[in-house]
Amino acid sequence: MKKIINNTMALAATLVLSVFLITFCTQTVEDPKGEDALDKLDDALQEFKTVGLLHNEIMDEVLDDFRNHDGQFEDKEGYFDFLEESLVRNLSSKDLLQGMKVEDIRSHVSQELAQLRSFYGNKPRKALDTDTDNYFQFTVSLYDGLLNPQQMQILYQIEYIIHNASSTQEIISSLEMINYSTQVQSLSHDDRLVIYAATSVGIESAIYWEANFQYWVDALAHGDSGTEFFKTLDGAGFFDSVQWFSGRRMVRADVAGAVGGAVTGCMAGALVGGAGCLPGALAGGLIGAAGASAHDAASQILEHHF
After folding, report:
1. What is the Cα–Cα distance from 281 to 204, expressed in whole angstroms?
2. Which string of b and e fits 236-252 if b means at least 16 CB within 10 Å?
């Protein structure tokens, strides 16, 4: 029964996003074959690396919106409502999404945030960063009917890397190796895209949050909490779970959002005549990653400070 519900939710998300992409996707993407296959492969990977960079750019823009907000929020709902508006506005400004209507981006962001809040809201704090119960695994299981066994295996390898790495550099080097592994190279062009979404967002997410999470604490907690943040780690690394904070949880949530968005975007692109998997996966991956990223950071801060 659980699998039927999960597959139904995944199909619903795909159909919703496909409607958005009807007016968005016009270009075609061919499955690379022949001598220039690796060049085309690298082109797709570079486009997803751009998505990772856009993820970080949007996080900075949302952070600036919180910094520039006048007054106080009455409750957590006020924070999350403001977060959603900021995400929609900043996503809508990106060239990658210029073909999508603002109301369509809003609908997809709302759906992403509702799914995240439903998952986190039903679990005690201590259960949110385990190796068997986290948003990444929830997302992969949600789309297991749309992912093949080899994709699933690689995605769980990515999760293992994030869960066990001791530094951002270790995450970067390990995920870069995944991109060029024989296991990934043996996938079809379209099947590789969800892996590229995961690795590219995972790398940029780790870089961004290690450098900037303290500033998010400052902006959302309204005080010198961010300045004191790293002192509370008491010598532990950013990716160690200490007290109320988990860097791994943020990175895994970001990757989960990218995976879910890329899967539904790819499927939607295939449903739209002539659109192809790549443009839909790029758009969906960016929206999913940005939504999951900002929500998880805000959730951790608000869970602790309010």
Report:
1. 17
2. eebbeeeeebbbbbbbb
